[in-house]
Design a protein that fits this description.
Two copies of one chain form a homodimer.
Chain A (H helix, E strand, L loop, with lengths): L1 E5 L28 H7 L10 E6 L3 H8 L7 E4 L4 H14 L6 E6 L3 E2 L2 H16 L3 E6 L9 E12 L2 E11 L3 H10 L3 E10 H11 L1 H11 L5 H8 L7 H6 L5 E5 L4 E2 L7 H5 L7 E2 L3 E4 L5 E3 L5 E5 L4 E5 L3 E6 L6 H10 L7
Parallel strand pairs in A: 1-2, 1-4, 2-3, 6-10, 12-14, 13-15, 14-16
Antiparallel strand pairs in A: 4-9, 5-11, 6-9, 7-8, 7-9, 8-10, 16-17
Helix pairs in contact in A: 3-6, 3-7, 6-7, 7-8
């Protein structure tokens, strides 16, 4: 099995720490390494380094090289243009098909946190077996609250045990429901969050793309003839729509299976996620550096260089400090940070993005 | 007339910008110069440089020299120890007495802001005339709210016009009343805030100190014999209590006069004062640098180096950023910043004070 790490994201919800020049996956958020480094590291010893591939844009080649050193250049797949995860998966499958046409591949976001590596490995082992039977494998995380940022999976038919773990056909895949619908799912029970990790055979994902996204399938057929010609690859990618693999394939396919898993997963979706990742103190404050708290509660603090943060009489804030920009955000509005980055671009403050 | 600028304060309520190594008066808060530089500059052309004296501790001699360059060393009066404003005024009077025993002196805090220099000069001219008649002159600012951090003056008997301005005997001087009393003063009307600037003759302040603060008077008599002997001066100052000139002299003396004045004065008492000094925008935000405001109101932002501050969905915050420390404080609790500095000292975080 090969792992394909998707490192092409912009991570704008992690502004101002995440910048165009160094997006979230290249930052050290909680652990001793950057999110990308941790994503690669946690694959061992299940997979060797030679089985790990990274997809990113040309711009981030130096960061990948620096952070994963030594990492063979032919295990980095350069996206001609960012065209979301369906094109990313298709491109990676095309690339792997050249040498491993029968191989299984697991697609992993470069910017997630997983705490229980043993559980993660066991799930991947089960996923590999399930994938070899022709399924597109998703991993279902038990939902803790009616989040609107995730896809929801409803398991149906029991497909048997794989490496000792139960697998289910996915009866319904609902990408990013609204709040009311998400709440209804939780009330009904038997729904899972889609983790954003997928596992399938090279052959299967390419045939599903041909079936569900024929324009992308056509583009990938041209890609196969164009390796080594970056300008041609750009021409092929340029007219493609940005469609996630969730919308483009998973919601529509009839060959989706699910393995329930509890690997201590977080998609580190926005600054609020640091509460879980860093943990909170007795006053509900999560911080990556020194702090002094006077009568304050339930804040998230993220600074660089060990800066001291002093809070006096405040609550429910996210405070993120970097060298040239400082964010102070109500904790229930962390999703809006993405829009801040758009605003900065429109307001001639592009230097801060 | 001589001006004596009191530059010995710690400015702890302006932490983290104000540090022991560089207190508030040595910072550029609003104008093009530091508060000390502006305090000196606004005396001209009423007074020449040769009429301006600065009192500070030995530690701040290099800062004074750097900021007022060129400034003759014999116009800097070194406080042997910080013992509050009564001792400071007495020391300065002793110093001036050596060369100008009949002279008038005006005591000016180094860390105030005054916007209307013309009004300020006119008031000082009137004050000089009033002082020459033996009064201890205070300057009364019309109160805008029941502040508890100021002294309150109640004018009584009209003493006549001085340089075209009415002067009054002060009938009652109440230093820092509680909130209820301050509110009562405002309701009654005919109360003024004491500006913290005082004007008197060298002779008069020394005789008032002898009368009202005999221990300080005794110490000053010894000081007169000890110029040029820093260790001896320290010995004399060391046992003195720290008493403000307001408590020690002004509240008790029967020779206090007041000139009402409206020179656009602010004592820059805490971070909230920046609302008036910097001015606020349409969303009530006062800032000394670039900001992007998403749905936020009524904040005070102070950063160094032109850092961009982005606010999302917050209100009534004070945010102060420096190289190694960041303060986020509820706007109605800015007075507590002083206690933060004490806490830091007690918590082994003295490096940040």
């Amino acid at each position: 099995m090969k792992a394909v790490i998707m490192a092409g994201g912009q991570g704008t919800r992690f502004w101002p720490a995440s910048r165009e020049s160094r997006p979230k996956q290249f930052l050290q958020i909680a652990d001793s390494g950057t999110l990308l480094q941790e994503t690669v590291a946690r694959l061992g010893p299940l997979l060797g380094r030679e089985d790990v591939y990274v997809v990113c844009s040309e711009r981030y080649l130096p960061l990948v090289a620096e952070q994963l050193e030594p990492f063979p250049r032919d295990q980095v797949i350069v996206e001609p243009m960012a065209r979301s995860t369906a094109a990313c998966a298709g491109l990676a499958a095309c690339y792997l098909k050249q040498r491993f046409p029968e191989e299984m591949m697991v697609m992993l976001p470069a910017d997630h946190v997983i705490r229980d590596v043993k559980e993660f490995h066991e799930t991947l082992r089960a996923g590999e077996k399930l994938g070899r039977e022709g399924w597109l494998v998703s991993f279902g995380i038990e939902p803790s609250h009616p989040a609107t940022g995730y896809g929801y999976l409803r398991p149906g038919e029991h497909l048997g045990e794989f490496a000792g773990r139960p697998a289910y056909k996915v009866e319904q895949f609902t990408e990013k429901p609204d709040r009311a619908r998400a709440a209804q799912f939780l009330e009904e029970g038997n729904y899972y969050w889609n983790s954003g990790m997928f596992l399938f055979s090279v052959e299967r994902i390419l045939s599903e793309i041909d079936l569900r996204m024929p324009r992308l399938g056509q583009a990938l057929a041209e890609v196969e003839q164009s390796w080594g010609y970056p300008d041609r690859l750009k021409e092929i990618f340029s007219p493609l729509e940005s469609t996630s693999i969730d919308f483009g394939v998973m919601e529509k396919s009839e060959r989706i299976a699910m393995l329930p898993s509890d690997p201590g997963w977080s998609d580190v979706g926005n600054w609020k996620a640091l509460e879980e990742i860093l943990g909170v103190d007795g006053q509900g404050v999560a911080s990556n550096g020194p702090q002094l708290n006077v009568d304050s509660r339930d804040c998230v603090l993220y600074t660089s260089g060990g800066k001291l943060v002093v809070l006096v009489g405040v609550r429910d804030l996210v405070v993120v400090d970097t060298e040239d920009a400082l964010l102070v955000c109500s904790k229930d509005r962390t999703e809006e940070v993405r829009k801040v980055v758009e605003s900065l671009k429109n307001k001639d403050l592009k230097e801060y993005t």
